């Protein structure tokens, strides 16, 4: 089943400091919506043939970040038993003071003082969405509205909670795509400087040193390629590696993947963009909007069946497996990762040189 939940300002605007105790924790209302759905599943899914003792929580992108946050919260203990995290991570959250700064920015769209507070409480949804858009445009980082470490629903970053063993008994199927951030880089910005708004987790002042390290490690690559590498690593790959490493070192089991099959036409030709794995995981590569991107249809259909079967196997048994795949071992200390492509292989610590660039940075 799929879940709808409040997003943006409606789901992640922390109003406690402005509107009082009754609004404390409102910065995680979107996660509370998801938790309510999990409670509904626990109470009702057996009536639909489901097993409330074997619930798999799955998400991609912001959904994957939500999954990590839910796993980190005491509010969801016992409500899920394994998880699939596609292109997420466990670091894109606000400290309470940062969330309150976003709230002040949002509130300024309605004026100042008590009148602004009154207007926020009586604003229509279109007015809230308009103020949300203006707030995002004025905010100096990516993702103005995100989960909040509020001491009520979240007590620490998801990566820190999992590293402390909060859900070490839950197996994870988790990974990223090779060129995630190509999805967000406009063609005419491929070689422009990296700005704060490009970054989800990293402080802008850390960028120059990182770019220097990338230049030394990959001197034959152009500016656009190194920018793509850095932004993909900053938002998706390194946060995911940190989550996998933390969960594994705490005694948990992770099955790691990287999706490597590139698009064969269109804007992302030759790249494996954010979301590229979804048609394969869901088995809908024949969709008319997707099929022009996949190239050879027969091999794409085979890979889609393979990935879909592996995902279903994980849901059913806690282990991803398929006859068309090599044996998929847990990640472990060797960082064993399945590279999913027309010919899928297990590789130890893929991208190790680039990963080491980020040691101590993120």
Automatic annotation (TrEMBL):
Pfam families with a match to the protein in the record: COesterase
EC number(s) from the headed UniProt entry: 3.1.1.-
Span of domain Carboxylesterase type B: 2-341
Enzyme class, spelled out: hydrolase
A GO MF label: hydrolase activity
Presence of keyword Transferase: no
UniProt keyword S-adenosyl-L-methionine, yes or no: no
Coiled-coil parts of chain: none
Residue stretches spanning the membrane: none
SUPFAM superfamilies to which the protein is assigned, alphabetical: alpha/beta-Hydrolases
Keywords noted in UniProt: Hydrolase
Signal peptide: none
PANTHER family documented for this protein: CARBOXYLIC ESTER HYDROLASE (PTHR43142:SF1)
Family that this chain belongs to: Belongs to the type-B carboxylesterase/lipase family.
Protein name: Carboxylic ester hydrolase
UniProt source species: Gluconobacter kanchanaburiensis NBRC 103587
């Amino acid at each position: 089943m799929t879940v709808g939940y409040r997003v943006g300002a409606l789901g992640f605007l922390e109003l406690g400091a402005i509107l009082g105790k009754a609004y404390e924790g409102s910065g995680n209302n979107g996660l509370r919506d998801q938790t309510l759905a999990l409670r509904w599943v626990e109470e009702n899914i057996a009536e639909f043939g489901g097993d409330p003792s074997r619930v798999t929580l799955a998400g991609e992108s912001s959904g994957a970040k939500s999954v990590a946050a839910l796993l980190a919260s005491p509010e969801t203990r016992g409500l899920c038993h394994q998880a699939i995290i596609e292109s997420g991570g466990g670091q894109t959250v606000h400290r309470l003071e940062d969330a309150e700064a976003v709230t002040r920015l949002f509130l300024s769209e309605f004026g100042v003082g008590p009148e602004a507070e009154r207007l926020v409480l009586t604003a229509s949804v279109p007015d809230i969405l308009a103020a949300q858009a203006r707030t995002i445009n004025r905010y100096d980082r990516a993702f103005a509205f995100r989960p909040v470490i509020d001491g009520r629903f979240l007590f620490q970053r998801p990566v820190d909670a999992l590293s402390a063993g909060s859900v070490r008994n839950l197996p994870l199927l988790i990974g990223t795509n090779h060129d995630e951030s190509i999805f967000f880089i406009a063609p005419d910005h491929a070689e422009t400087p990296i700005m704060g708004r490009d970054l989800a987790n990293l402080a802008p002042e850390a960028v120059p040193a990182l770019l220097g390290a990338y230049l030394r490690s990959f001197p034959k690559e152009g500016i656009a390629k190194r920018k793509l590498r850095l932004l993909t690593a900053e938002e998706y790959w390194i946060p995911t590696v940190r989550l996998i490493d933390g969960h594994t070192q705490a005694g948990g089991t992770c099955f790691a993947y990287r999706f490597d099959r590139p698009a064969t036409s269109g804007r992302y030709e030759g790249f494996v963009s954010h979301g590229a794995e979804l048609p394969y995981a869901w088995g809908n590569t024949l969709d008319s909007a997707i099929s022009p991107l996949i190239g050879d249809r027969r091999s794409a259909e085979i890979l889609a069946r393979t990935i879909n079967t592996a995902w279903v196997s994980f849901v059913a048994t806690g282990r991803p497996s398929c006859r068309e795949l090599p044996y998929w071992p847990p990640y472990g200390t060797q960082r064993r990762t399945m590279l999913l492509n027309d010919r899928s292989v297990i590789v130890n610590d893929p991208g190790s040189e680039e990963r080491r660039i980020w040691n101590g940075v993120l």
